[in-house]
Amino acid sequence: MNEYSELVRPVLRKVQGYEPGEQPKEGPILKLNTNENPYGPSPKVGAAIRRAIPRLKRYPDPDCSRLRAKIAEVYGIPESCTLVTNGSDEAIRLVFEGLLDPGERLILPVPTYTLYDVLATFRSAEVVRAQFGDDFELPPLPTAGKLLVLPNPHVPSGVAFAVERLAALARDFQGLLLLDEAYVDFGAESAIGLVGQLENVAVLRTFSKSFSLAGLRVGFLAGPPWLIETLFKLKDSYNVSHVAQAGALAALEDIGWMELNAKRIMEARDFTRYHLLSLGFSVPISSANFLLAQKPGVDLYPLYLELKRRNLLVRYFATPGLFDRIRISIGKASEMEFFLETLQKALVSLA
Prior knowledge:
Blueprint: H1 10-14, E1 30-31, H2 43-52, H3 65-75, E2 82-85, H4 87-99, E3 105-110, H5 115-122, E4 126-131, E5 147-151, H6 163-172, E6 176-180, E7 201-206, E8 219-222, H7 225-234, H8 242-253, H9 255-278, E9 290-294, H10 301-309, E10 312-313, E11 315-316, E12 325-329, H11 333-350
Parallel strand pairs: 1-10, 3-4, 3-5, 5-6, 6-7
Antiparallel strand pairs: 2-8, 7-8, 9-12, 11-12
Helix pairs in contact: 2-8, 3-8, 4-5, 4-7, 9-11, 10-11
C-alpha cells in the first residue's frame, strides 16, 4: 500500500463504489441491461447542439436560466423550485451532501438503486433499510429521519406508487422525502405537483431515459425553495455545459417526440411481460422501461451468462434478495422478439 493512501478518509478506503451496468466496447451485442432508450432523441436536439458549438469558447450559463424556465413551464412548477444538474445522479449527491451529516438517519426501502447506499456510506450516514416484499408494495417505514429516498416507479421492479400514498408518506415523515422519477414517463403518475404543496417533498427527473439523452448527462431537481437555495451553494459553478443545456431545452420543446417513443416502449414492455409470464417467470406490472423477471428460488446467474454468451446483455444482481431475478431493459419491438427467441433457446440449453 502506498504510504500516502493513508491520507484518504478511512470510509473511502473500505467502500466499493457504484458499479454501473456493463458497457461492451464492441461487437454485435443487444444491450438490455442499462435501461437506455432504443429510440434516438428528437432531431431538434441535434440541431440545437450544432448551434451551440460556437459558444463553447465561453462558460455556460451557471444558472441554466432558459432551461429552468422551460422546465417550470412544462411541469407547472415555479422556476425558483428548480435546479438543473449533471444528470440526476448529481442531484442525488447534492441532496445527500446538503442534508446528511455523519450519523444522521437515511431511510431506504430496499431493494433500490444502489447508488443511494454508496453515497450514504460516503456521508457516514446511518442507513435504515425497510424490506419490500415480493409484491413490492411499500413496507412500513420509520417516520423519524433526515431523508427518505424512494424511486417511483420503483427500481428495480418497475412498480409505481399512487401519488396519494406518497403524499401521505411525506406528511408522516419528519424529514425530506426525495422521489426519484427517472422512469415516470413510461406510465406512472408524477408526484411533481406535490412540490408546490408540501415543504418536505423533492422530485428528481432525468433526460437520460424517456428523452433518449443518456450520453448528454442532464437532470433536474424540483423542490422547495429552502432546498434549492441550499443546493445552489453546493453545485459546481458550471455544472451543465452549453451543449447539454441546448439539447435538453430542445428536447422539452419537442416533448411529443418523447411521448411517442415512450408509448412504443410501453407497448413492447407489455408484449414482453405477457410472453415472460407464459415462460413461467413471475413479473410485476411495470411502469418503467424495464421488467424484473423472477424464477422463485432459482439463481439466475447461469441464465444471465448463457444470454451473454449469445450476445444479449440483461442485468443480474448478485444480492440475497434478487439472485433469482433478472432485469430486462425494453428495446424496440423487433429487439424484444429477438430477446424472447434467445431466452427460450437459453432456457432449453440450461434445462
